[in-house]
Each structure stands twice: as structure tokens, then as C-alpha cells.
Amino acid sequence: MLTGMETASEITEGATSNDPDVGLRAVAALRTLTERLEVLQVDNARRSGWSWQDIATRLGVTKQTVHRKHGRRSGM
Fold this sequence. Notes:
Elements: H1 8-15, H2 20-47, H3 52-59, H4 63-74
């Protein structure tokens, strides 16, 4: 469960809510989802032979930032 919101449609609906409680929970759920997707896609890229620089460029960060965040986990 993503911070009390379960489905993508609930997150989407919550993100446009005028209720700050609902809206902020949607932001938290999106943040969690984004982190999970980043881990998945960085791992996919590394398995496909992408360099840390290639990944960093696509994410809009420095090579050092992406390596510091994902390097130990991926062991690459």
C-alpha cells in the first residue's frame, strides 16, 4: 500500500483534491512510487550495459549522484 492510497486512480484523484490531507497523501504516494520506479529502471539500465553517466543524463542528475544513490545496491 502506498501511504494509505492503493490504486493509481486513487492517487490521481487525490493529487487534484482541494483537501490538503488527501492531496498531501497523494504526493507521498507518488514519491514512493517514483522511488520504486527509479530503482527498477536504473537496475534495468545497468543490466543492459548503460553507464552511470547515461543513466544520470536521463534522470537529470550528476553521475556522482546516481552512483551514490544506486551504486551499492546494484553492486556495479
